[in-house]
Structure formats: C-alpha cells, structure tokens
Amino acid sequence: MAINTESNGYTVIFSIAMVVVVGAILAGFAQGLKPQIKANERFEKQQNILYAMGVNNNEGPNDVEFISTENVEDKFGQYITKQLVIQGDDITENDQAYLIDIKKEAGKAKDGDYKRRLPLFIGQKDGEDVYVIPVRGKGLWDAIWGFVAMDETMTIEGVYFDHKGETPGLGAEIKQRFFMDDFEGESFLDDGEFSTIKVAKGNNDPKNLDKTDQEVDALAGATITGDGLTEMLRKDVKMYVPYFKSLNN
C-alpha cells in the first residue's frame, strides 16, 4: 500500500522521526566535544589567573592578550607554585583548586552548616610571592567575575574582570585594559583593617594617581555595574583577610 505523504499523520510521524534523529546526532556531537569543552574551560581559568598576575602576551598599551592555549598549562605550572583550599580553619594544598566552582560554593554556603571552600593561588613573579583569589558578583544584567592578584599586604598587583551580559561600551568596559590597570597599587587595608576598593563616581582622580584613597574612577554610564563590582570585591576579598593576617603575624 502506498504511503500518503500528504496526510497529517505522515507529517507528524516524519517530524517526530527527524527530531529524534537530529537530537541523537547533536547529543553525539556534544558528548564527543565534551572533553575539549572541559579543556577549554580549564585553559581559560589558567589564562585569567595568569593575566591577573601580569603574565600575558600584551604588547601595546591597550592590549588584553592572554597566554596562548598551547602554552598556558606550561606557564601555569611555571608561575603558580602552590594552590590552596581554605575551608574554615583548615588549609590544604590541592593542585586542582582552580577548578572549584565558586558560584556553587556560594550556593552551598547558604546552608549554615557548610563551610565554603575558598581557592587561593600562590605564584612567583620577579622573585616575589603573588596571591591570586577568584571573585564573583552581579552586574547590571548578569554575572560579573574575575581574579585579583595581591602581595602579602593585600596591595593589588593586577586584576582580570569579565562579564556575561553587561552593556557594550558601558558596563562591558570592566574587561578593558584602561579600567583594570587602575586597580594596580590600591590596597584593601586601611590602617591594618580591611576596607574594600570602590568604583567611585567623581573621585577627582581620573588618572588614578592617588593609591591611598581606595578608589578607582567609575565607568561613564555604568553605575550599577560599578556598584556590583565594588560589592563583589567587598564580599569575596573579605573572606581571605584571616589568611593574609596570618602571613603578617
């Protein structure tokens, strides 16, 4: 019996069959690409951590160029000498600490019985120890995140910031070189006590020459993103203060 290809039944069956076949093909591709996706995520975190330390491929004054994926694992092993996980009063070494998902850790910490895992990366650059911590917060539209590199006095050596959906030309500028470089030399300590660095409007220091005011110049038209970044630094860097105090005791 001939199949009536113009019937509604045939159309429905054919559509279902195509969905199943295409879904199976896409699932196969996704499964096959999963190792590469995981590798790319690993490389990106390593690149970001190194960038905050000042290990990058920048040449021009406005460049934001990472170590290449081909070289980043070797460079990461060369510059990062120790990875720690701080969990309450316990501090352990873990060479996979950079893979800890701090968003998930923040979610788990809503349970008062859970002690959040805080990854900390210790590197060596120009013969000096550099301490790099991850930060994550909320901008105007979605998540913002980054890494902050400091010396033992909690003075910033460098930063890297990124975002998921901030406005191009406004909040999205947090990942531009001119903004990130302003944080260098700012300190999280004021007379020995923690005080966050603010993204401030009208701080009368557009070139950021004053490194004692704990402020960087805000981005024009990006007040909410700047406030979110200030809050991100306050809440996440503050958690590491006991560790840094232990270094100076």
Could you please describe the fold and organization of this structure?
The chain has a domain of 168 residues. It has six helices and ten strands; from the N terminus they run H-H-E-E-H-E-E-E-E-H-E-E-E-E-H-H. The protein is an alpha+beta fold and 249 residues long. The strands form three sheets. It has a six-stranded antiparallel beta sheet with strand order 2-1-3-4-5-6. A two-stranded antiparallel ribbon has the order 7-8. Strand 4 and strand 5 form a beta hairpin. The chain starts with 7 loop residues before the first helix and ends with a helix. The mean pLDDT is 89. It is globular. The protein is 35% helix and 23% strand. The relative contact order is 0.11.
Note the main attributes of this structure:
single chain; 249 residues; alpha+beta; 6-stranded antiparallel beta sheet; two-stranded antiparallel ribbon; 6 helices; 10 strands
Task: Note the overall shape.
Answer: globular
How helix-rich are the residues, as a percent range? 25-40%
Mean pLDDT: 89
Provide the structure class: alpha+beta
Radius of gyration: 23 Å
Beginning-to-end CA distance, first to last residue: 89 Å
Total helical elements:
6
Main sheet specs = 6 strands, antiparallel
Number of strands: 10
Query: How do the strands of the widest beta sheet line up side by side?
Result: 2-1-3-4-5-6
Strand and helix order:
HHEEHEEEEHEEEEHH
Uncertain segments = none
Beta-strand residue percentage: 15-25%
